[in-house]
Every structure is written in C-alpha cells, then in structure tokens.
Q: What sequence folds into this?
C-alpha cells in the first residue's frame, strides 16, 4: 500500500473544488479533484494562521482555523478525533505561520447545492517565513505542471492517461486532469495562470504588501473554445498584415474558412479583438495589429 | 520598504471601528498591521479584518479596498480605482443610439497586469506611456477577461511617470543546473562538462557541427547543446553567459552558440564529474514509480516523524532494534543505544520513508547522542528526544542522498547524506515566472 501524496494546492483552487470521489467501500480513501486536476486525498498546506475558533463545546470541541495563503483561505478542522491538533491550535495566537498536513473533508448541507471543502488536520506545526515561501514555490510548480498538461490536452483532447504520459505528464497528474476535464470541462487556464503569477510575485523583494491585493475574480467557464478562435484569428491577421494598410478582409475570410472558422465567428472574434485593443481598422476593409 | 505614513489611514479606520470596544494605542495597531502585511504577507483587507476581529470589533464596519492593482480587478465591479500606464489608446467612431459617437479603446497596464479599457464619455488627452490615476471606473467581463470601462462618473487625472514601478524586466538570470527551466533566456551559469559528444547535423541544407552532452554543478545535471566549437573538454569547468534553455520532452536543455561566451574556469572546490553524477536529483513521484535507485538525491519536506525515531536500543549481536531488552532472535541482551530518524519525506509528487543514521541525525539536530541520552535521563523518558527532533525537523525541507528500495510499505531510502535543502526562493520564483510569462 503506497502512502498518499501530500498535495500542494493553493487555497483558492482547493476551495473551488466540487468533485468528490468516494468509493462505496468502508474506509476507502476519498479524493477531491480540483478544477485543474489535483486528485487530493492528503494535503500539505502552509500559510498564515489568522483565526482559530471552537465552534463546538468544551466537551466536544470542533476547532476551525483559517489559514491564509496568497490566493485565499484554507479552513482547517480539528474535531474530537483530532484532540492533539485541537490543543495545539487553541494555544496559538494569530498571526503565526503554520504548516498543516491533513485529509480532504467535504460537506454539503442537506438542502444546499454547494460543497464546502476543508482540511481535517492530521498534524500542525508552527513554522517560519522561509517555509511558507518554499511552500508557495512548490504549490506554484505543482499548478504549473497541471497547466502544462492542459496545454498538451488542448492540442489533442482525445489523449488518455497513456497519451499524456507519453508527452512527459506524470501519471498522478494525467489521471486527475482527465477526471477534472470530465467534471468541470476546460478550466479557465488564463485565470489560474494569473493566480499563479501573483502568488509567485509575493516571493520577490519588490513585492509591496501594502499596495498589493490577493483577491482574484472568480474563474469563468470558457464558452465554446472562444479563446482558441481568438488566438487563431490573431495568428491569421499577423500572417497577412504586411503592408502599412494591413490585412485585406477578404483574405482573412478565406484563411479563416480554411481553419474552419465561420464568417459569423470571424466577425465576432475581430470585434472582440478590436475591443481588447489588439486589432484595429486603419481603413475600411483592412485589419491591422496594434 | 519605505511606506512612510501610508498605514495611517488604515490605522485610523481600525481605531474608529474599535472605538469603545477596546482601549488600544494607534502605534500598537500600526505595528500589528505592519506585522501582518509585511512579515506575514497577509492581504491588507484580511489583516484589517483579522485585527478588528481579534479585539472583538465588528469587521463589517470596515470599508472596502481603495486603490487596486490591475491583476486584482474583479469583473462586474461598479466602482474601481487604480493607477495605470497607457499601453495603447485608439479613438474610434461608433454608432450610438443618439448618432455617431467618439470612444477611446486600448490597453492599460501596471506592474501586475494589463487590461483592455474603453472610454465611453469625455476626452482622453493621454497617450502611450502616460501614467494616469483613474477613479470610479467600472469593470465588465468578456470571455473570462476583465475589461475596464470609463463612463460619465469616471475621473481621470495625470500622474508622474514614476508613480508606477516599471514592469518586470528580463534581466540576466544567474542559475544553477537544477534551476534551469525551459523558456529562460540570457542565462549565466558555471558548469562542469560531465559527458560530451560531437555531432554533425544538417540545418537548412548546411552542415553544422554541434556538441551535446551533460553538464552539472553541485545541484545536479543538465543536458546541453553548443552550436559553436568553444573547444569544450570533458571534465572542464566553463563559465557560460547569454545562453538560453529550451526543452525536449520536458527535459531542459541549455543551449548556446557563437553569440554567447563560454570561458574555462579554474576552481578546485567545484564538484568532480563523479560527484555531480552521484548527486542526480530525482523527484519523489519518479522515484516511487521506479521503485528504487542507487546513489540518488531527493528533496522533500519532512511531513511526519515516525515512532521509532530518536533514542533506540539495538541488539549487540545483530543490530536489530529491540524492545524492553529483548531481541527477537537473541532473546535477553544488554542493548546498545543508537540514534536515528524515520521520517516521511514528501515533495508533492510522491512520498518515501527515509532512514537517517546517528551521525547524520547529530548533524541535523546539532546535538550529540550523549547529550540526548542525558536529556532522556533527566526527563526519565526517551520521548523528549523525539520531541526535540520533531521541533527541529518537522515541516523542514531536506536534501538526502542515498539508496532507495521498495517493499509493501512503499519506497524506503537509506540516507548516506542529509542536509537542509538550500532553496533560493527569489531566483527560483523568478525562473518560474519567466518560464510562465516567456514560455508561451
Ligand atoms: Zn539480536
């Protein structure tokens, strides 16, 4: 029996998860699959402890601690069966850097449709700044590995675990990514990439805590491969945009048709790209890159 | 960090919310706020709420954030304030409900992000490079991307160009072998050539000679390709600058040509080719998949220290660990003390049990076995030894070299060397950022 990996996942992505895999068998491990495909049973989280509260009673304590990372909060849970951990938590005075190993815990209220995800702590340990920084780096690497797997998958959506593995994607990642694809569809990769970048920026000396904010917009589903069409259209314009006047509309239409993009989709894409400030119309019937 | 009185308005706000709740000085509040933000890197709004909550105040009485960085703009926000640099701005005539109308669209950026914007009302006398302060703009969302809109209520004012830090620049990257990542450019590094072959290839109909092989330093090995004959010699040490890193099947490859420099270096302290080969760093996921390996180096966080760590007693005949003075083979014996650690090392891709012997344990904890024996005697329990090891090593990242084997319980690595892993967080973060932002 192999030991479960302690995943490094950012709080925001962990909390956004809605897929819990539980086999019918008693004592079989449960897995939480995150939007980018971390298949988590055990997690290792490091962050700043900002609050600890006993939501239970003296006799039946239920400690809930909030751990802040660069993307959001982990909710750390220690109940009757984690009394040792509860004792440590209750003795801590926030803020402190805390490392937590624990198991996935998910709860859906009887009348609710939303799943609440927390960490059932197995162990907690007070650490120092360097360990927090190091954890951010490891979590960033782990997320990047999954984003890279999605990039490969977007080029060939039919790839299975073996196919992804042949592109150098580790098996433990490939499996989770495919499960995530089935449940969530394609995640908003740009959003997770931005989250990754701002988490890493907290590690640089020029990071300015007072003026930075760690809040992120909620990830949005991408509709119908819109981003792919947009980037293909940009590519076409780039290829055709030669003279000072820019690319001729009719040529763009032809090339788009070759790529399977309908005139309607093309017009919409060009409009969006103009709105975004990536293209403009120097004269009627011509399109140029900004 | 030179923030001057910038904390003052936030401290005032906290003090206002806590008025009548608790009597606390503003200096104390400011110190606390600074600690949260600068040391613990907690976002300002979280820090303010945590402090108010801690003193029993109502955190809902705190206002929202004021000036926002572009990477933290949220879609569909009715009012946002930020400082940004104009990246592009283009006027455009559109047909509105009241006839033709002039709008301006383009891109704004700061040191965190760029966002598209549209100005629907008023004039925009700014051009590329100008820094502007924008109050009361609003955001929409298009295809998952935030768009800034400026309407009649929006106020735009000019700012000094230095009101914004410049974006992240692509400076020279100094990297060790294990830090090289695909997409890195302008890399400087010092490596020993461990293995090399000369190859002839045809590039667009032209015959070229190139040199490929393995080079490394104290952090590990990397593949390299040189497109120029620098007279490289096996076992030689070279200072390479201006190189870049590409990859083949995910394996980074340091690549350099005649535009780069590559000069021999004399350094007696540089690890030998054998040492570099022996120190091959391997991910734990890979190691678990392989099942075992000889002479590998791993890095992982100590996420658990197992029972049986600390002071133990061994049979003098067979070295087995004994309980209550009884060896399972030799029966009642006079045990010999030993010190060891059984730790779970985990790097997020795999987990292995690592056995660390007395000598290495003494080096890692800074205490000798004799000292531990004394402490255990004073406390009348060997548990204090394990507690001390937990205190010193749990949640620490170690770099361990040794031989790995596997059994029913997973992979076990017997350490020949173990030391705290040296992680240069800043340069690794920069390398990763460069790979993400430059490797598109
Ligand atoms: Zn024996």
A:
């Amino acid at each position: 029996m192999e030991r479960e990996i302690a995943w490094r996942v950012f709080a925001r992505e962990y909390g956004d998860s809605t897929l819990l895999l539980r086999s019918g068998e008693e004592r079989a491990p449960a897995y939480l699959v995150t939007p980018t495909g971390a298949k988590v049973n055990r997690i290792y989280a490091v962050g700043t402890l900002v609050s600890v509260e006993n939501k239970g009673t003296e006799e039946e304590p239920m400690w809930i601690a909030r751990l802040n990372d660069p993307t959001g909060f982990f909710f750390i849970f220690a109940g009757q069966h984690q009394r040792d951990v509860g004792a440590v938590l209750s003795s801590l005075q926030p803020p402190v850097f805390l490392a937590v190993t624990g198991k996935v815990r998910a709860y859906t209220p009887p009348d609710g449709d939303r799943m609440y995800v927390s960490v059932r702590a197995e162990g907690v340990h007070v650490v120092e700044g360097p360990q927090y920084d190091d954890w951010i780096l490891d979590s960033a690497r782990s997320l990047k590995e999954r984003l890279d797997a999605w990039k490969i998958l977007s080029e060939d959506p039919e790839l299975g675990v073996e196919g992804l593995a042949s592109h150098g994607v580790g098996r433990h990642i490939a499996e989770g990514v495919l499960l995530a694809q089935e449940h969530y569809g394609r995640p908003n990769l740009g959003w997770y990439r931005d989250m990754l970048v701002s988490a890493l920026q907290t590690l640089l000396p020029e990071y300015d805590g007072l003026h930075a904010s760690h809040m992120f917009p909620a990830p949005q589903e991408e509709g119908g491969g819109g981003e792919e069409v947009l980037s293909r259209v940009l590519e076409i314009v780039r290829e055709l945009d030669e003279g000072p006047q820019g690319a001729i509309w009719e040529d763009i239409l032809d090339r788009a048709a070759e790529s399977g993009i309908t005139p309607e989709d093309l017009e919409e894409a060009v409009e969006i790209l103009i709105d975004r400030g990536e293209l403009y119309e120097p004269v009627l019937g011509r399109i140029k890159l900004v | 960090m030179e923030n001057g009185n910038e904390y003052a308005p936030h401290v005032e706000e906290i003090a206002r919310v806590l008025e009548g709740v608790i009597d606390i000085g503003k200096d104390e509040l400011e110190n606390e706020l600074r600690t949260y933000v600068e040391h613990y890197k907690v976002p300002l709004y979280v820090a303010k709420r945590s402090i108010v909550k801690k003193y029993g105040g109502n955190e809902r009485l705190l206002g929202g954030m004021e000036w926002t960085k572009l990477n933290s703009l949220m879609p569909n926000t009715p009012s946002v304030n930020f400082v940004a640099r104009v990246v592009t701005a283009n006027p455009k005539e559109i047909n509105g409900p009241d006839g033709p109308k002039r709008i301006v669209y383009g891109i704004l950026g700061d040191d965190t992000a760029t966002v598209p914007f549209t100005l629907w009302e008023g004039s925009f006398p700014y051009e590329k490079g100008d820094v502007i302060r924008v109050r009361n703009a609003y955001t929409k969302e298009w295809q998952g991307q935030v768009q800034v809109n400026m309407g009649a209520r929006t106020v735009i004012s000019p700012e000094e160009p230095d009101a914004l830090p410049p974006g992240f620049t692509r400076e020279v990257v100094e990297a060790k072998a294990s830090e090289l990542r695909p997409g890195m450019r302008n890399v400087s590094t010092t490596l020993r050539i461990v293995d090399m072959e000369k190859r002839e290839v045809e590039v667009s109909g032209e015959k070229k000679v190139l040199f490929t092989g393995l080079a490394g330093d104290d952090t590990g090995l990397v593949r390299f390709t040189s497109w120029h004959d620098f007279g490289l010699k096996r076992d030689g040490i070279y200072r390479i600058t201006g190189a870049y890193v590409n990859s083949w099947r995910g394996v980074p490859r340091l690549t350099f040509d005649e535009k780069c420099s590559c000069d021999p270096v004399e350094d007696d302290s540089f690890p030998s080719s054998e040492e570099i080969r022996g120190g091959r760093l391997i991910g734990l996921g890979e190691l678990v998949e392989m099942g075992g390996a000889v002479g590998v180096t791993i890095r992982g966080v100590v996420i658990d220290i197992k029972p049986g760590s600390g002071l133990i007693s061994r049979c003098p005949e067979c070295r087995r660990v004994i309980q209550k003075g009884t060896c399972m083979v030799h029966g009642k014996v006079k045990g010999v003390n030993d010190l060891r650690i059984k730790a779970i090392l985990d790097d997020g891709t795999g987990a292995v049990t690592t056995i660390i012997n007395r000598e290495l344990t003494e080096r890692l904890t800074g205490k000798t076995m004799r000292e531990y024996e004394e402490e255990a005697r004073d406390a009348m329990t060997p548990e204090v030894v394990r507690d001390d090891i937990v205190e010193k090593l749990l949640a620490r990242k170690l770099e361990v070299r040794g031989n790995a084997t596997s059994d029913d319980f997973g992979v076990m690595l017997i350490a020949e060397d173990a030391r705290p892993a040296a992680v240069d967080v800043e340069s690794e973060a920069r390398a990763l950022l460069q790979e993400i932002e430059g490797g598109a």
